[in-house]
Amino acid sequence: MPVFKVPFNGYSVKFSPFYESQLAVATAQNFGILGNGRLHVLQLSPSPANPGQPISEISSFDTADGVYDCCWSESHDSLIVAAVADGSVKLYDLSLPPTANPIRSLQEHTREVHSVDYNVVRKDSFLSSSWDDTVKLWTVDRPSSVRTFKEHAYCVYSTAWNPRHADVFASASGDCTARIWDVREPASTMILPAHEFEILSCDWNKYDDCVIATASVDKSIKVWDVRSFRVPVAVLNGHGYAVRKVKFSPHRGSVIASCSYDMTVCLWDYMVEDALIGRYDHHTEFTVGVDMSVLVEGLLASTGWDELVYVWQHGMDPRAP
Amino acid sequence: MGSQSDSTPNSVDDKAQNPASQPSESTVNQGTVAKADVPNERATPSPFVNSEPIREEQVQNAVKFLSHPKVRGSPVMYRRSFLERKGLTKEEIDDAFRRVPDPTPSATASQPVVANQDGQLNSSSAIQQQVPTQTLQRAQAPSTGSISRLGLYQFHWSHVLYAIGFLAVSGAGTAVLLKKTIIPRLKSWIRKVVLKEEEGEPLVEKGNAKPNLAEEAAAAAKAAAAAAADVARASQEMLMSKTEEKRYFSELTNLLDVQIREMKTMSNAVQKLQDKGESSIPGRIATREEDDHRVSVVNSRQPYSNGKVDNRIDSVISSSPPSSVEPSAAPHPKSYMEIMAMVQRGERPSNIREINDQPPNPNQPVPNPRLVPKPKPWEVGQSQSSSGSGFQYQESSNGFTSGSQTIQLNADGSVPWWQQKNARITEIESEDEQNIRSSVPSEKPVQRSWVPPQPPPVAMAEAAAAIRQPKKPLLQKEQLTDDHLLGRASEVTDELQRITKISEAGGLEANGGNLANNASEIQKEEEQAYTET
């Protein structure tokens, strides 16, 4: 399985929803403490007869500060949204030359922007969550945010749109709560006191729109049903350190991929008694980004602070040549 | 959807108002109110809204918590956050806040920006004391910076006023004193001169009286002039000293300003770095918590976890697991620690470049999309794919084949490496693929997701016979008692259940079309069997 070396520490990797072979990687220099950033767009070359370059770079964009997250637009095949550590959200257009990019730089957050997520249902808007405790809603055509959601008491590490309801999204914060919001409502509609420690990531079940998973510093992943949110549906233990990112599979309703500071990527099936169904320890530093392809079933990608990006099929060894 | 959003705030408001009047019957009221307030197309309200009734016990615990004197002194946001973490809903928290009378917020997040002239000195000293502590708090740094600057300016002006007053008073005092000392000196000097002259008179002729007088007058005039010169010099010195003092004071205040500004920038920089350091490695928050940083978790938890606190407050807090379950910090790479140390010392890593990442044309038009968005795998087979954006979506069957694995073949006909799968997984997966691909041409495309179990195929002839059998005994043995008939009916259902379970365990192996046909067939049999009884 091929690996790609990036010059900076990897922070996030996302597959394109339009092209099976494209993925975007967000990286930051000096572990994201202080330094530049770069957004890479990589291509998986289809021909196995070209073993020298199974992953190649289509283009890359430099930023003054680290890029903590990126997401692809669901409506435009060449647009990428980047979350930058200087508080700006930048839009990049791959169909334009690098000198014409970025096409937008939206500076409204007062702290680092930690994550961005694009609306999968209506495909017209995206969210950004920041260490300034707020979540902002944007559309591509407007130069300023549509709404700001300010309720969390600490950094908001992650937001995720509901895969079936165009107006519902969830946010995970360092104040140990996850909140469910409806953009039509003035305030959050539900508060899940999901963990006793900071919640670093959340994601919705693509096949059950009321099930949400949260990943926390307490090394566990909890799966919740919002209809009865006092008790989790499942608690997934197995990571050795804080779980940094959690992602529900787009193809199998009960499969979750997660990555952690224990340098592994794990696959879980929370409906099964023995939930851990796969474990990959190919990284040599914190694994910070993981994604499962929507277009190719079983295709996983991960990146970490060891400056490597791996793309592999579930069941195969990521480090195999 | 519009009516949906209208109804939920109503139900939330009603729930909030009801328990205030009827705490005991809250559950019953809420149930009826919630149901009555949802007259829209959906049978149940949105699942993303908390429709739990307010729990009185939780509200009372929260009231006790909020009434605690130590809690009173903490910012409102921390109190809210604590209660949220304990699992209280928004309505419960609002209720608790309403029940506890809130005195003047002394150190809340929203500090009074305008300080009155009356309480100037007090407020300014208070603000000055709070400035060093609050600059450590991330969220309030910008506001307190401006507030403290404002306070210092006022302080500065009042200080100047006081200085000027003091100087004026001191100047007047010294002037008075000097006059008091100069005049006696003058007088005594004049007396001396006069005495000298008087002493000299008897010795000298009387004729010298007049010139002596003139001399005396001249001498007195000289003395007066000298005294006046002295006074002038003294007053000049005083003025100079006054201006000097004023200058010194202004210099002092300027220096203080500069110092404070520098301190603020330093603290901001330290904050930023600490934030980045802390939040980018949240695993380390556990150890940092002991250092009593911004994390309010520990700030609010520590005062209550010791035995001094009321038992009932403990019950609210003891529901959380003991603090010994703190997660261990992940070991960070060595170069990470080096960079953190370098940044905290104030050094800038040498590999950072100056990059201009601003958009060259902020009004660059967004390009037209070249591809139509593909339906997601979980949207396939559903008719509720949204059309709000005006894109044309492919039909479900076409979308299915294109949304799922379109195996691109290379020039030599081989499969791209990222679609090749491991042998053991392909065994399981290829079966699914074949099933699904074969069922695509049928009328009902089968979803690749979890499919509800279909009634079993007629693979077991005995089962089919068993199902069909009860008809004959029912027809023949009409004299059977009711118990027997019921027994037969239950046998049929048991048979069916057993067969269903077996087929479920075996997995979906048959064609979708066949299943549908078999399902209808068996359902017919069932109906007939039941109607016979």
What does this 3D model show about the protein?
The complex is a heterodimer of chains A (321) and B (533). Chain A has 321 residues and is mostly beta strands. Chain A is 0% helix and 50% strand. Chain A contains no helices and 28 strands. In chain A, the strands form 7 sheets. In chain A, strands 1-28-27-26 form a 4-stranded antiparallel sheet, with no helix packed on it. Chain A has a 4-stranded antiparallel sheet with strand order 2-3-4-5, with no helix packed on it. A 4-stranded antiparallel sheet of chain A has the order 6-7-8-9, with no helix packed on it. In chain A, β18 (199-204) and β19 (211-216) form a beta hairpin. The model of chain A has no long low-confidence stretch (mean pLDDT 93). With 533 residues, chain B is an all-alpha fold. Chain B has helices spanning 2-21, 26-36, 56-67, 69-72, 76-85, 90-99, 120-134, 141-203, 209-280, 285-290, 296-301, 311-317, 334-345, 396-403, 423-439, 461-468, 471-476, 482-506, 512-532. The chains are: A mainly beta (321), B mainly alpha (533).
Which shape of chain B, going by the Cα principal axes?
A: elongated
CATH T-level topology of the largest domain in chain A: Methylamine Dehydrogenase, Chain H
Bin the helical content of chain A. under 10%
Strand content bin of chain A: over 45%
Order of helices and strands of chain A: EEEEEEEEEEEEEEEEEEEEEEEEEEEE
Query: CATH superfamily of the largest domain in chain A, called what?
Result: YVTN repeat-like/Quinoprotein amine dehydrogenase
Q: What order do the strands of the largest sheet of chain A run in, or round the barrel if closed?
A: 1-28-27-26
**Biggest β-sheet description of chain A:** 4 strands, antiparallel
Q: Report the span from N to C terminus of chain A.
A: 5 Å
Please report the number of helical segments of chain B: 19
- Counting DSSP E segments of at least 2 residues, the number of strands of chain B comes to 0
Rg from Cα of chain B: 47 Å
Oligomer state of the chains in this structure: heterodimer
Structural class of chain B: mainly alpha
H/E topology pattern of chain B = HHHHHHHHHHHHHHHHHHH
Summarize model confidence as the mean pLDDT of chain A.
93
Number of E strands of chain A? 28
Q: How large is the count of helical segments of chain A?
A: 0
In helices, the fraction of residues of chain B equals: 55-70%
GO molecular function, one term (chain B): signaling receptor binding
Keywords (chain B): Membrane, Peroxisome, Protein transport, Translocation, Transport
Family (chain B): Belongs to the peroxin-14 family.
Biased composition (Polar residues) (chain B): 1-11, 18-32, 398-415
